[in-house]
Amino acid sequence: MTALVEFAGLGRTFGSGPQAVVAIHDAMGAIEQDDRIALVGRSGSGKSTLLWLVAGLDTPTHGTISWPALGRPKGDPFLVGTVFQVPSLVPTLTAVENVALPLLLHGVAERDAFATADAALERIDLAAVARQLPDELSGGQAQRVAVARVLATRPRLLLADEPTGRIDRHAAREVLDALRATADEVGAGLVVASHDPLVYDTLPQRWTISDGRVAVTGALR
Ligand SMILES: Nc1ncnc2c1ncn2[C@@H]1O[C@H](COP(=O)(O)OP(=O)(O)OP(=O)(O)O)[C@@H](O)[C@H]1O
Q1: Ligand 1: distance of its center to the CA of 48 in Å?
Q2: Ligand 1 test: best mutation among 12, 13, 25, 49, most atoms within 8 Å of CB?
Q3: How much is the pTM?
Q4: Which residue intervals define the domain ABC transporter in the entry (predicted)?
Q5: d(CA 150, CA 129)
Q6: Residues with Cβ < 8 Å from 114, sequence gap 6 or more?
Q7: pLDDT in tens, 30-61
Q8: Pocket around ligand 1: residues whose beta carbon is below 6 Å from it?
Q9: CB burial class (10 A; 0-12, 13-18, 19+) of residue 204?
């Protein structure tokens, strides 16, 4: 299977001189389509930095990273889908408009974009709130709308950064189930960065990160 992402000797240092912070140190790894990885580490251990590098949104200061199956993913939501701790929905748009937005911005015809957005919301059990504004949604619902927005673009790789950080346990489980179902449905690799035990209890593989050093510690599939 062609890897989605491969990296070796990967490093990211912020700043220089005595103030330099080595956020990622000499990391090696690969992510494939059927990977379901919990990226586990304390606050400040380097999880977000690694995700940004893997997404192609940041440039390493050392080593190499490539996307053999993706070309150059930089910011392309059809290649790499992202879900963050805060769902970052446009407050003046309804749930379905938020989900349709990346499609519309990338030239999908309005009718098709809304049909796809409605189907994605339905798939994640959110059809009932499709016409509501973000303010009218619970935290868990808003986060699942962000997952539906990813589902609608059918990316090859799905990256989530602390997606359960601000919601209760029940909602967290629903969000994780939605992320996993989305990855399964579109055939995407999945990496969820978190220090929430629910995340690493739910996903079969584990990468541990400590002071910027990444180790594969969980079961391999
Ligand atoms: N833009 C930046 N400039 C300077 N230092 C940074 C920058 N981004 C991250 N860092 C530093 O790099 C290290 C790793 O940060 P990172 O955000 O990747 O950790 P994290 O594990 O995602 O933490 P959290 O769980 O709190 O989000 C930290 O020491 C952080 O202060």
Answers
A1: 7
A2: 49
A3: 0.94
A4: 5-220
A5: 17
A6: 96, 100
A7: 999 999 999 999 999 999 999 999 999 999 99
A8: 14-15, 21, 23, 41, 43-49
A9: middle
Using one digit for the tens of pLDDT, what is the confidence trace for 60-108?
999 999 999 998 888 899 999 999 989 899 999 999 999 999 999 999 9
Pair of tokens at residue 178:
């939605």
Where are the domains positioned within the chain?
A: 5-90+154-216
**5-90+154-216: what fold?**
Rossmann fold (3.40.50)
Q: What is d(CA 73, CA 54) in angstroms, rounded to the nearest whole number?
A: 9
For residues 158-193, one letter each, b for 16 or more C-beta atoms within 10 angstroms of the residue's C-beta and e for the rest, the string is bbbbbbbeebeeebbebbbebbbebbeebebbbbbb
